[in-house]
Design goal:
alpha/beta, VC0802-like, 2 domains, 21% helix, 28% strand
Length: 396
């Protein structure tokens, strides 16, 4: 520890492992407010903990706690301060009796206040880390941690924005946690202008709006954007359908002020002004599995629509390959992102054939992050985050 920096333990949830660092990270920060600022945006963080003791040796671990300066412990040991001690055995298991024994092993701290399991004045966290391989659990923990819980991450947003409770969803609506992770990787903040060119039911826009972004979307699917596609929920297929739209979702979460608009558009035929500048492009392109990969077009030659059918005519579509789509997406990002703006997009891959050198590239964009979500033995999708470095050449 240097200067006035304090050590804090950042404890991450044990899910979406490729989208976060190791489960326990020790950070040196100036004060609790820094911890709270970090936690205010993290949906993978469980707790930020003021670290009082850490060791791979139980004797040294408890000796450090016994020597804790009185000015650190005393504010939380007073008779009027209620407390509880939480126990986590990471990578192993414990009985209730073993849990109580672990809690009682800290009796030397001399906490004089009442034990209060629900909303205590202060909560302490004890962690034994047995590693990440649940098939080879060691006899003794690799690490011991103890500290005071300072703050929680934004895990409650996962439940708040859950698709199970959402008014309008589609076959490929992104789950709330991944949507929030994408918004974070896009650095969405208050006032950011965010665009999803394959918006679908708008899950990514909901997450971006939750973090203060102003959101704009486009999609080629007329029925989806107008809430006229077949109901996704089986139990709702025979019920009358009331307002179902992206805007309805925004209203549901109190985010309608962040909603800019939706546009029915073919991404392969850009309609945007050259002056359009975006802070982030966050998208989940169609892969051709549950959602078709299409663009406007026809295979028929010299096809002319009669004048009487023009008003109700819906343009036909032709195949839009993933290679073409990703090329167009990176070109669009290079043109319309601000410098340092970010493109966050999914790319499907066949795992046995995957090579990072084959990922889409553009001279104006730098690949910052590449995380994998395994879908099956053979298939996965990778979440790519690009940052814009420079403007493209004139006329490009």
């Amino acid at each position: 520890m240097t200067g006035t920096l304090k050590k804090y333990l950042m404890w991450f949830a044990n899910e979406h492992l490729d989208f976060r660092l190791q489960p326990f990270w020790i950070a040196e920060l100036s004060n609790e407010e820094d911890v709270k600022r970090l936690a205010s945006r993290s949906v993978t963080l469980r707790y930020g903990i003021e670290l009082w003791s850490h060791s791979d040796n139980p004797i040294h671990f408890h000796d450090t706690l016994r020597r804790l300066p009185s000015n650190v412990l005393e504010p939380y040991a007073r008779p009027e301060v209620s407390f509880k001690v939480k126990v986590e055995v990471f990578g192993s298991s414990q009985t209730q009796e073993e849990k109580v024994q672990r809690i009682e092993s800290f009796s030397y701290l001399g906490l004089r206040g009442p034990v209060k399991l629900n909303k205590p004045d202060v909560a302490f966290q004890y962690i034994e880390f047995y590693g990440l391989d649940d098939k080879n659990v060691p006899d003794q923990p690799y690490d011991y941690y103890f500290g005071r819980i300072v703050t929680e991450g934004q895990r409650d947003l996962i439940s708040k924005l859950s698709l199970k409770k959402r008014i309008f969803i589609g076959n490929t609506s992104m789950d709330s946690q991944l949507s929030l992770i994408m918004a974070n990787q896009g650095l969405v903040k208050n006032g950011s202008f965010v665009f999803d060119p394959f918006v679908g039911s708008g899950s990514l826009l909901v997450a971006a709006a939750q973090f203060g972004g102003y959101v704009l979307g486009a999609d080629i699917d007329y029925l989806m954007l107008h809430g006229r596609s077949a109901p996704t929920r089986k139990q709702a297929r025979h019920k009358p359908r009331h307002e179902e739209s992206v805007m309805a979702n925004m209203k549901q979460y109190g985010l309608s002020s962040q909603y800019v608009d939706l546009v029915i558009a073919d991404f392969s035929l850009p309609l945007w002004s050259k002056t359009l500048k975006l802070d982030a492009i966050i998208t989940d392109p169609p892969y051709g599995v549950r959602e078709a990969m299409e663009r406007l077009g026809t295979t028929k030659e010299n096809k002319k629509i009669s004048e009487k059918h023009l008003a109700t005519h819906m343009p036909s579509k032709v195949q839009y390959t993933m290679t073409q789509l990703l090329h167009d997406l990176l070109v669009f990002a290079a043109r319309h992102l601000r410098i340092d703006g970010r493109l966050v997009t999914w790319v499907p891959v066949i795992r046995s054939e995957y090579e990072e050198t084959n990922l889409p590239k553009h001279e104006c964009l730098r690949l910052l992050d590449n995380s994998e979500q395994i879908l099956s033995t053979n298939a996965s999708r990778r979440l790519l985050t690009y940052e814009k470095l420079k403007e493209p050449m004139v006329g490009y």
